[in-house]
């Protein structure tokens, strides 16, 4: 990182918690680096990859864990920065928030941490484990590999209400989504690109209640939904008897990490309002159309993940010994 970049980081730190988003083509974001553990724990990325892949491939259903880890990286970074606050146990911590109800993959992070502590104790942060595992998840789902920077430290604070207030929800339109991402230093285009994570995603019925049965307080279904698509979602999510184990695939083409999500939006088959609005809004529709080119999507997604992975990075925190608890003694 050049002096100029470091200076910008420090300046921004005065206004935000930790190190905010500074985009540089040649250097890391705010002290983060590629191959960060190459001397301190050379097998770190390989160990995380092996643990993640073992979990993803145990059966076809286990690929859902891959998608879960990708979402976890977003829910970590978007709430007070990428500091593994989402992993902390305890009353009122982020993982108890309603918006994190369906988050999965905690055990995979625990397992990777356990293996890393056995070979390089106190070296690899939980926040970095999430970031590497999310990348490995994308690759497991047929996405293109990208370099992930390391160097994040783990935070000591995790508050459920902060997850509820900082994360976007599925009922938002482009204005709200753009404003939400701007607060994290991410552009509208990056928001559209990162939403492509929904190409291998599944939603659940509770998040669809309003759109299917009481759109904007009308007591009706969102009128912009094609009838057959609305009928199919209502069949999966009958009003009276929501089943939490029902998965609603957010890409109607394939379960893989590809352009199917954007093609679903072009077919007006975006599951949540936040998805469909990206195509329905004339400001974001051109980019949705462009992202149906798979090579472009994969390249843009990797770049955007690197940007997301640098939100509010804390270089002064700790390396947790157990990802679910803050350290009781300095480590
Ligand atoms: C643009 C704003 C976003 C909104 C409003 C949003 C909203 C949602 C909603 C409502 C769900 C379904 C939750 C459920 O019912 O279980 C979901 C799932 C998911 N989201 Fe997002 N999301 C956004 C951005 C992102 C980003 C940036 C990523 C990652 C880079 C991401 C990754 C995922 C994944 C992978 C799932 C599926 C998780 C699974 O299958 O277990 N989302 N999102």
Structure description:
The chain is mostly helical. The chain is built from 14 helices and two strands, in the order ααααααααβααβαααα. The protein has helices at 3-15, 44-56, 63-77, 106-119, 126-140, 160-166, 174-182, 188-195, 209-213, 227-236, 260-266, 273-280, 285-290, 294-308, and strands spanning 202-203, 248-249. A two-stranded antiparallel ribbon has the order 1-2. Helix 2 (44-56) runs antiparallel to helix 4, helix 2 (44-56) packs across helix 5 and helix 8 packs across helix 14 (294-308). Residues 1-27 have low confidence and may be disordered. Protoporphyrin IX containing FE binds at residues 64, 67-68, 70-71, 74, 102, 104, 168-170, 172, 177, 191, 194-195, 197-198, 201-204, 207, 272, 274. Heme b binds at residue 198.
Helix-strand layout with pairing:
Layout: H1 3-15, H2 44-56, H3 63-77, H4 106-119, H5 126-140, H6 160-166, H7 174-182, H8 188-195, E1 202-203, H9 209-213, H10 227-236, E2 248-249, H11 260-266, H12 273-280, H13 285-290, H14 294-308
Antiparallel strand pairs: 1-2
Helix pairs in contact: 2-4, 2-5, 3-5, 8-14
The protein binds protoporphyrin IX containing FE.
């Amino acid at each position: 990182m050049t002096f100029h970049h470091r200076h910008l980081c420090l300046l921004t730190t005065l206004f935000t918690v930790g190190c905010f988003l500074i985009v540089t083509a040649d250097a890391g974001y705010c002290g983060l680096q590629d191959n960060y553990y190459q001397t301190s724990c050379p097998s770190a990325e390989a160990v995380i990859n092996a643990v993640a892949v073992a979990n993803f491939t145990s059966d076809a259903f286990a690929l859902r864990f891959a998608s879960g880890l990708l979402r976890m990286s977003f829910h970590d970074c978007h709430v007070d920065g990428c500091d593994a606050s989402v992993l902390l146990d305890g009353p009122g911590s982020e993982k108890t928030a309603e918006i994190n109800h369906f988050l999965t993959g905690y055990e995979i992070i625990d397992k990777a941490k356990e293996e890393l502590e056995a070979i390089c104790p106190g070296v690899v942060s939980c926040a970095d484990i999430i970031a590497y595992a999310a990348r490995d998840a994308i690759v497991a789902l047929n996405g293109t590999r990208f370099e992930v920077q390391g160097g994040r430290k783990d935070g000591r604070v995790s508050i459920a209400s902060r997850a509820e207030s900082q994360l976007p929800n599925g009922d938002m339109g482009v204005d709200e989504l753009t404003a939400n991402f701007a607060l994290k230093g991410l552009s509208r285009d990056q928001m559209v690109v990162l939403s492509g994570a929904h190409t291998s995603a599944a939603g659940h019925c509770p998040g669809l209640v309003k759109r299917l049965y009481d759109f904007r307080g009308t007591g009706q279904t969102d009128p912009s939904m094609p009838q057959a698509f609305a009928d199919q979602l209502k069949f999966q999510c009958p009003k009276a008897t929501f089943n939490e184990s029902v998965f609603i695939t957010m890409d109607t083409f394939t379960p893989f990490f590809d352009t199917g999500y954007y093609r679903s939006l072009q077919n007006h088959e975006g599951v949540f309002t936040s998805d469909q609005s990206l195509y329905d809004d004339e400001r974001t529709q051109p980019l949705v159309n462009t992202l149906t080119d798979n090579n472009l999507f994969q390249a843009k997604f990797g770049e955007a993940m690197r940007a997301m992975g640098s939100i509010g990075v804390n270089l002064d925190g700790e390396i947790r010994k157990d990802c679910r608890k803050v350290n009781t003694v300095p480590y």
